Description:
Layout: E1 2-5, E2 13-19, E3 25-32, H1 48-58, H2 65-82, E4 85-92, H3 104-110, E5 114-115, H4 116-120, E6 129-131, E7 134-136, E8 139-143, H5 145-149, E9 151-156, H6 159-165, E10 171-175, H7 177-180, H8 201-217, H9 220-231, H10 239-261, H11 275-292, H12 297-304, H13 320-339, H14 341-360, H15 364-387, H16 394-402, H17 406-409
Parallel strand pairs: 3-4
Antiparallel strand pairs: 1-2, 2-3, 4-8, 5-8, 6-7, 9-10
Amino acid sequence: xxxxxxxxxxxxxxxxxxxxxxxxxxxxxxxxxxxxxxxxxxxxxxxxxxxxxxxxxxxxxxxxxxxxxxxxxxxxxxxxxxxxxxxxxxxxxxxxxxxxxxxxxxxxxxxxxxxxxxxxxxxxxxxxxxxxxxxxxxxxxxxxxxxxxxxxxxxxxxxxxxxxxxxxxxxxxxxxxxxxxxxxxxxxxxxxxxxxxxxxxxxxxxxxxxxxxxxxxxxxxxxxxxxxxxxxxxxxxxxxxxxxxxxxxxxxxxxxxxxxxxxxxxxxxxxxxxxxxxxxxxxxxxxxxxxxxxxxxxxxxxxxxxxxxxxxxxxxxxxxxxxxxxxxxxxxxxxxxxxxxxxxxxxxxxxxxxxxxxxxxxxxxxxxxxxxxxxxxxxxxxxxxxxxxxxxxxxxxxxxxxxxxxxxxx
Length: 410
C-alpha cells in the first residue's frame, strides 16, 4: 500500500504499510537507534552518532540523537495508528528494557506496544547482543496487542551464529495474516531454473546465435522497420497498427523463449550425506572465511574459536600464504570425498546399523530392515506434508504414531 522513511532524512528508520480486506492495515517499522556516547572525542567522524549530531544542529535541534529519535518516531507511529494501522516495530534500541533510566520501556508503553520476546519468555528474554564478557537484550520486536495475539512462532539465531557473522542475533516472527489483514495467504511458487546464465559465455553465445537466426527467419527486424516508417509523425496508432505491434511483441517473446530452450539445462550435482563429507565441507568453509576476513581482527578471533571443534590447529598470526595453501588442500580433500560420497554414506549407515543392533540386541540384518522402514516412513511423512502445502496439521502426528511400518500401512 505504502512505503516510507525517516521524514527528517537522517536514515533512522523505514516502514512499509500493508493493506488487507475491509480496510485492515499493518505497518512494519525497522529502526536503528544510535548508541549512547559519554565522550564525544572518542567517537569517529563517520559514526552514526557524529553524523546525526551534525545534521540535528543544522536543524536547530540540541537534543541527543538517542533521545530525539524516540520523539520523532512516536509522532510517525501515532500517525499510522490514527489511520487504523496495527504496528510491528523491529528496533535496534542500543538499550536494555530493565536498565535504570531506560527510555525504551516508557516509549513502548506510551504507544501500547509490547516486546514479543518478553511475552514468549515470561519476562526473561535471552540476550540478542554479544561481545567479550557482554550479553544484553537491546534488539526488540514490539507489537500492538492484536499483533502479539496473532504471533504463531517466534525465535532467534543461536549465539554461535551471532559470533561468526556479527554481534547481534537475528530474530524472526511468524504472524497470522488471515486475522491481521483479513485475507488468505498463498504458497510461493518455486521459481523455475533458467537455462540462460549470463555469466556463462557458452550459453550466451548459443542463445544469441539461435535468437538472431530466428529473428532473421521470421523477418522481425524488417516488419519492425516497416511499422516505424508507417507510424512516423503520427501521435496515436490506428487499430491495425496496434495489432501489428502486439503481434511483433508476441513473436519476439516466443522466439526468445525458444532460443533459451535450445540451451541444455544445467543439472546440479547432489552428494550423499555422511559425517565425513559434512566435516570436510565445514573445514573448507572455515579456511574460506579465514581468507575473506584476514584483515578484520575481531572477526578473525570469532572464526578461530570454531577451529577446535573442527580439529583444526590455527593461530591468529597465520600468514596469508599458509591460509591459501590450507584452503586449496581442504578443497582438494572435499572434492575427493565428494567423488566417493556414496561409499562414505554406505559406510556410515553400516556403522549406524551395527550400533543399533548392539543397543537393541538383534542381528545386523534385522537392524538394517528396521532402519530402512523408519527411513521410508519419515520420507512418506515428508511427502504428505509437502502435498498439504507445508501445513502442520495435528492429524499428521497421529498418523506418525499409529503407523508401525510404511509397507504395512500403505
